Amino acid sequence: MRYVSTRGNAPVLDFEGATLAGLAADGGLYVPEAWPTLSREQIADLAGLSYAETAVRVMLPFVGDSLSEDELRDLCERAYGTRFAHAAVTPLVQLDHRHWLLELFHGPTLAFKDVALQLLGLLFERFLTGRSEHVTVIGATSGDTGSAAIDALAGRTGVDIFMLHPHGRVSDVQRRQMTTVLAPNVHNIAIDGSFDDAQALVKAMFNAPDFAGRFHLSAVNSINWARLMAQVVYYFYTAVRLGAPERPVAFSVPTGNFGDVFAGYVAQRMGLPVAKLVVATNVNDILHRALSAGDYSTGTVTATDTPSMDIQVSSNFERLLHDLGGRDGAALALQMQGFETSRAMQLSGAHRDGAAALFTSARIDAGGMMGAMRWACERTGELIDPHTAIGLAAARELDIAPEVPVVTLATAHPAKFPDAVERATGHRPALPARVGDLFEREERCDRLPATFEAVTGYIAERAVARA
Ligand SMILES: Cc1ncc(COP(=O)(O)O)c(C=O)c1O
Ligand SMILES: N[C@@H](CCOP(=O)(O)O)C(=O)O
User: Fold this and answer.
1) pLDDT in tens, 96-108
2) Where residue 179 sits, what CATH number does that domain have?
3) Could you confirm whether 416 is annotated as catalytic?
4) Label partner for 331 (CA 20 to 30 A): which of 61, 104, 176, 237?
5) Do the domain assignments include residue 49?
6) Which residues of 322-331 are buried (b: 16+ CB within 10 A; e: fewer)?
7) Could you list the residue range(s) of the whole structural domain that residue 459 is in?
8) Per-residue pLDDT reduced to its tens digit, 166-197
């Protein structure tokens, strides 16, 4: 399997190369040269398999020669073993005759990011073993990627991780899950800016030849292809439990950086019968505007009770545009340069029609979100987190054929956002015992202005330069 940049002007890499590179050198994102497919029989054969074995079958076509099947199986068994608090790893909960929740928060940091990052940590370890080179991972987080990546990489040799989060715009639980990890290779930076500022700084560092050349940079955000590959697995695992390949299934995905829902798109391209993918946004609704009206233009980020989705520039949308535009890297490079200058892009009619075949979208405001939390609580006794509530509200308001089961991705544990859950339902969710002493632990974090000079200066003082 070979990986090409969405902008068509970066070295073509194998899976190992794409995983360690993170972002492509031309500013684009790595994607497989062609989507592999699983036949109906192969999909039917997934029924009854463990999560780890499903992961092997779904991801094997993507790893090419970088790992043998046995090596991949070993990594999946380690990633999806005791670090998840549920034997099914990603269990399904039925809400009513057609609505389901896919609980993705049973990993160590209580959000869906663990599903991919527990594997990515092991992939880094596997690919770096025997190399003398030190890797500097840089990441941007609105709360969940940061904690999951830090958990996966803390204490590993050969890697330092520098994680940027927007100061004051993540929940206390999210912040503490990052800042109380005191391993010497973990560096937390709170920037005076938004998640978008943090993400732009990370991309600028990859695109600065002097800086990127001095340190071996790598990425843990969903700009790294391996992140998305690991997320494709739970779409297969879930749909098969609900009757695929005989029965199509719809998924509603609370969306920010367009990574999780793009993984659903990949599953569909691989042959999974996906009836619809619902892109559910909060009031930071650039993706809803893009899909419903072709208007992909940024505004000011509004702080909400769903801070992990307070995002304007959705990195992975570029991967979808690449496919919608017939994989013309040069044309997409021009389009993205235009967007980076004007902060706005109009989708063509053909792009919109192409997207509409699979995607639909909804913008859910605070009232809709709180209503969904109350509905789930009253109906089933389930407390759901505010991000999940955005997905559930969208799933319930959209017109999807009645015979199709609709699965909302429950992306975080409600205890990560206890204040919003309590306001909506009157119940305060308790932190699971595995993170119980979080509020007694010492914190370590530095605060910096959101400037390239400040952040690169900070990293350069602490990271290991190439020999
Ligand atoms: C809890 C939660 N839900 C939803 C999202 C949105 O996911 P994505 O950025 O992959 O669209 C995020 C952040 O990524 C998140 O942390
Ligand atoms: N909500 C995210 C934002 C970054 O998303 P990623 O999937 O690209 O890593 C977070 O929790 O940090």
Assistant:
1) 999 999 999 999 9
2) 3.40.50.1100
3) no
4) 61
5) no
6) bbbbeeebee
7) 133-221+437-467
8) 999 999 999 999 999 999 999 999 999 999 99
